[in-house]
Write a structure and sequence with these properties.
With 364 residues, the protein is of the alpha+beta class. The chain contains eleven helices and five strands, in the order αααααααααβαββαββ. The protein has three domains: 115 residues; 78 residues; 101 residues, Heat Shock Protein 90 (2-Layer Sandwich). The protein is elongated, with a radius of gyration of 35 Å.
Length: 364
């Protein structure tokens, strides 16, 4: 029935220190002794709302309205300062139940607060009381909205983190599958041929046909050498992709992220040196990863051109750079030092447009 204890519950418990006010009211301000029973019921309801499992909807409903009724009653008939107790409900709404504004708890919270304000304005006889009845609820609503905004931002960050985690897992899975296919295509056929040649050599050896044995062993040697060459090539391919392969991978990642991508490539990348291709790949990977993870974009365009230098332009309709510090894209700037390139932010937002130039775009 109850949820296990969590460390963040301590923050809910700290609010209980304010129960000293109704208890002190009985001792020093003449509150009736029976209000201690109401305070006890409120405390039990509050603690139960913290710990009870969410599937007990009816119980939560009763506990919620019981605690609200206590604050409304004490605020209207004993002391308007009890309005501060609405913070108990504000914290539960935002952090415990993580309710939206249209939930019954949020609506009842606003109605209860509004009823106390109206009642207080009607009965208040001096300007100080009227001012308190106005200012305190405004402060409560302001703080509640601020906390709600913080929580909403946390939820969005958490959702983005989960999406990025999924994308990274899919990318890693695709890479593993690609390596597996390459190994199978490269080595599977080779080992089958080597096994066949070995069996033929053994059969010819049984027949003492040494010429045939020598022929099979020579072919086996050639297959072995070719296999070693293929494995070296495979290892080199794992170290870096061609630009075309990188663009294909980017298309897959954008498809998974529901971002529409347009690619315009007029550069004959097959003739570029491995260093230049590796640099282009890193730049494209860095820019597109930032778009997927941070930009919240719906459309993106990548343009590769070559004149005196290779130019990469990446444009997106995301949120852009909020504050320009001069330290943006530092990893790309460091990489470009190897190829005498430069990066420019042509537009920081609406749309975001970045241009990268590689001055040493020589052919291999």
């Amino acid at each position: 029935m109850f949820r296990p204890f969590q460390k963040n519950y301590i923050l809910y418990y700290l609010a209980l220190i304010f129960l000293a006010y109704p208890i002190g009211g009985v001792i020093w301000f003449g509150y009736p002794l029976w209000t201690l029973a109401l305070t006890s019921l409120f405390t039990i309801s509050y603690l139960a709302l913290i710990h009870i499992n969410n599937q007990f909807h009816k119980t939560i409903f009763c506990l919620w309205f019981n605690s609200l009724a206590y604050v409304v009653y004490m605020s209207c008939f004993y002391d308007g300062a009890f309005m501060w107790f609405f913070f108990f409900h504000s914290n539960l709404l935002i952090w415990r139940f993580r309710d939206k504004i249209k939930s019954y708890r949020a609506i009842s919270f606003l109605l209860a607060l509004g009823s106390v304000v109206i009642y207080g304005q009607i009965l208040s006889t001096d300007i100080i009381s009227r001012l308190m009845v106005t200012v305190v609820p405004i402060f409560i609503l302001f703080m509640s909205y601020s906390q709600y905004s913080i929580r909403k931002e946390d939820d969005m960050k958490s959702e983005i983190y989960k999406q990025n985690e999924t994308i990274n897992l899919l990318a890693a899975e695709n890479e593993r599958n690609r390596i597996g296919r390459d190994l199978h295509d490269t080595l599977g056929h080779t080992f089958a041929m080597m096994t066949l040649k070995t069996e033929l050599a053994l059969k010819q050896l049984d027949k003492e046909n040494l010429v045939a044995v020598q022929k099979e062993l020579e072919e086996l040697n050639q297959i072995s050498r070719k296999s070693m060459k293929d494995v070296r090539q495979l290892i080199n391919n794992l170290k870096y992709r061609t630009v075309g392969e990188e663009l294909d991978n980017i298309r897959d990642m954008f498809s998974l992220s529901d971002i529409e991508l347009q690619v315009q490539n007029t550069v004959n990348t097959d003739h570029l040196s491995p260093v230049i291709q590796s640099s282009i790949n890193m730049i494209l990977r860095e820019l597109t990863t930032n778009i997927i993870k941070h930009a919240k974009a719906k459309h993106c365009q990548i343009c590769l051109q070559m004149a005196e230098a290779i130019t990469i332009e990446v444009t997106d309709d995301g949120q852009g750079f909020s504050n320009m510090t001069g330290d943006e894209l530092h990893s790309i700037k460091e990489r470009l030092q190897l190829v005498k390139g430069k990066v420019e932010i042509l537009s920081s937002a609406n749309p975001t447009k970045i241009r990268v130039s590689l001055e040493e775009g020589e052919l291999s």
